[in-house]
Amino acid sequence: MNFYRxxxxxxxxAMRSLVRETVLTKESLVMPYFVSxxxxxxxxxxxxxxxxxxxxxxETLEKKVAAAVANGLAACILFGLPKNKDATGSEAWAADGxxxxxxxxxxxxxxxxxxxxxxxxxxxxxxGHCGLxxxxxxxxxxxxxxxxxxxxxxxxxxxxxxxxxDMMDGRVLALRKALDDAGYAGLPIMxxxxxxxxxxxxxxxxxxxxxxxxxDRKTYQMDPANRREALREAAADAAEGADFLIVKPAGPYxxxxxxxxxxxxxxxxxxxxSGEYSMLMAAIQNGWxxxxxxxxxxxxxxxxAGADIIITYFAEYLLAEGLI
Length: 324
Ligand code: PBG
Description:
This protein is an alpha/beta fold. It has 11 helices and 12 strands. Strands 1, 2, 3, 4, 5, 8, 9, 10, 11 and 12 form a 10-stranded mixed β-sheet that branches. It starts with 12 loop residues before the first helix and ends with a helix. Ligand PBG binds at residues 118, 120, 122, 130, 165, 201, 204-205, 217, 273-274.
């Protein structure tokens, strides 16, 4: 006799829904956008390795967000492509920089849409690194002041959350202090606490035109082989005042998401990065995977691993198709 019969609880769609442990919600998805400082209002340049994702002008961004909000989008994260890059990435903190203008535009039209900004220098520096460089070395502490300026400029534009992705040590504390001193004590920091030096960022670097011009990011991003180090990074950021902890990439690091979720009482955010999107899209476009099922499975697995929130390039698609 079989006492255990898993099939009892799988007998119908209603029964499966009744016992489902993990559910994706609209409110927990964040859509990334790439906004370009261009004079062409209709600018919308497809990113070749990310079918369906474009670099857009402010005007095109507004159109995309209008459609997504109508479908229930609750949150987005913005990446900027400046007109000019320089050694310090100074357009990153310009009051009229592209991200700052995009934040103002979106918040004015949709006050309830949560607008998150990526705080980093790599899209703005001529060398493509996330910090100041001297003699080929990425400098940690002098970079913190610049990152604080970036975060303050995003706060002044009306961002709801700032998300530092540079992986310099001590940046959460530097941002927290700068924000508090400037009267933004209520502005949350979503820290890319656990960010691996991953090959899966490849398509993003095409999208954000932020590939390092020399070397790589291995001196500041984490070694994919390390698990305990993720807990040290997360602990440091939590102690410095992070309000959210990001683990990135997501799919290849489900074990790390689980550990971070178990060890910390902060909301855990998983970033399903560009390369994860590209892999799925490539197989989907070849007819090798079913889009709806593969995308939902990839995301429900990330949530099951312990993520409360998921940043994913599939957010617009899921909402447009009414899949969540
Ligand atoms: C900027 C940044 C990167 C991503 C988000 N913020 C790229 C990198 O570190 O090289 C990657 C996102 C993605 O691949 O979708 N530091």
